[in-house]
C-alpha cells in the first residue's frame, strides 16, 4: 500500500502541474472577436485616457493602465480594444482586451507570447498563431 501511494503521488503531482500550467489551442475566434468589438468595443488608448479613473484589470492607478496599453501598442499591435467596460465609483474598468495582431511575424510572436503568459498564469490555454486577426485577452 505504501509503495502504491508513493507512485501515485508523483503521478498526481505531474498531472496537476501539467493541467495548471496551461497549454495552447489552435483556434481562430475572429468571428466572435469582431462581434464583441462591434457590440461594445472601445479603442483602448482613447478610452483609458478619457477619465483619470479608468483602469485595465487590477492595474492601478490610471497612469499605470495607460502605460500598460501603450506597451501593447509598442509590441506592434495595430489596434487594442477595451471590451465589456464596467463602471465603478472612480471611473470605468475592463478585464477584457481584444488585440489586433500585426502582419509582422516578430511582433505577432511578441504579442502572442505576452498573451500566453497571462493565460497560463490564470491556468488557461493560450492561443497558437493560426493566422487569426485578433487575440482575446482576459486580465485579472
State the helical fraction. 40-55%
N to C succession of SSEs: HEHEHEHEEEEHEE
- How many runs of DSSP E, i.e. beta strands? 9
Q: How far apart, in Å, are the first and last alpha carbons?
A: 43 Å
Largest sheet: 4 strands, antiparallel
**Portion in strands:** 15-25%
CA radius of gyration: 18 Å
Question: Count of helical segments?
Answer: 5
Q: Which term fits the overall shape?
A: globular
Mean pLDDT value: 87
Strand order in space, largest sheet: 2-4-7-9
The domain count comes to 1
**Low-confidence stretches at least 5 residues in length (pLDDT < 50)?**
1-20
Structural class: alpha/beta
Task: Please tell me about this protein's structure.
It is a single chain. The chain is an alpha/beta fold and 140 residues long. It has one domain. The protein is built from 5 helices and 9 strands; from the N terminus they run αβαβαβαββββαββ. The chain has helices at residues 2-21, 30-40, 44-50, 62-74, 105-121; strands at residues 24-25, 42-43, 55-56, 80-83, 86-88, 91-94, 96-100, 126-127, 134-138. A 4-stranded antiparallel beta sheet has the order 2-4-7-9, sandwiched between helices. Strands 3-6-5 form a 3-stranded mixed beta sheet. The protein has a two-stranded parallel sheet with strand order 1-8. A hairpin with a 2-residue loop joins β5 and β6 (91-94). α3 packs antiparallel against α4 (62-74). Residues 1-20 have low confidence and may be disordered.
